[in-house]
């Protein structure tokens, strides 16, 4: 789906991670939600690049875009 994101059952129990790291996509999303800043995520995880953070967001967008969401029951 994205060359910046890898899924390997031997790494982080098969969770999507940023290629070349053991940092799950969910960690990047959590950090963005907490800090509201790509720069802060990069400060906390200096091994990441801005392109990897963007790739994490694009990966999530693609997953959501291809999901069939059911409306909540009232």
Give short descriptive properties of this protein:
5% strand; Arc Repressor Mutant, subunit A; single chain; two-stranded antiparallel sheet; 74 residues; mainly alpha; 2 strands
Can you describe this structure?
With 74 residues, the chain is mainly alpha-helical. The chain has a single domain, classed as Arc Repressor Mutant, subunit A, CATH 1.10.10. It contains three helices and two strands. It has helices at 25-35, 38-44, 50-65; strands at residues 5-6, 17-18. The chain has a two-stranded antiparallel ribbon. Helix 1 packs across helix 3. The longest helix has 16 residues, at 50-65. The protein is globular. The protein starts with a strand and ends in a 9-residue tail after the last helix.
Please render the helix and strand layout as text:
Layout: E1 5-6, E2 17-18, H1 25-35, H2 38-44, H3 50-65
Antiparallel strand pairs: 1-2
Helix pairs in contact: 1-3
Helix content: 40-55%
Q: Can you tell me the overall shape?
A: globular
Strand order of the largest sheet: 1-2
Low-confidence stretches: none
| Count of discrete structural domains | 1
Structural class: mainly alpha
Q: For this entry, what is the oligomeric state of its chains?
A: single chain
| Cα end-to-end separation | 35 Å
Mean pLDDT: 91
Under CATH, the homologous superfamily reads Winged helix-like DNA-binding domain superfamily/Winged helix DNA-binding domain
């Amino acid at each position: 789906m994205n060359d910046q994101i890898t899924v390997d059952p031997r790494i982080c129990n098969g969770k999507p991670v940023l290629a070349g790291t053991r940092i799950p996509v969910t960690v990047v999303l959590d950090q963005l939600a907490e800090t509201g800043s790509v720069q802060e995520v990069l400060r906390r995880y200096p091994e990441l690049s801005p392109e990897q953070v963007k790739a994490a967001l694009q990966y999530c967008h693609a997953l959501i875009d291809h999901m069939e969401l059911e409306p909540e029951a009232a």
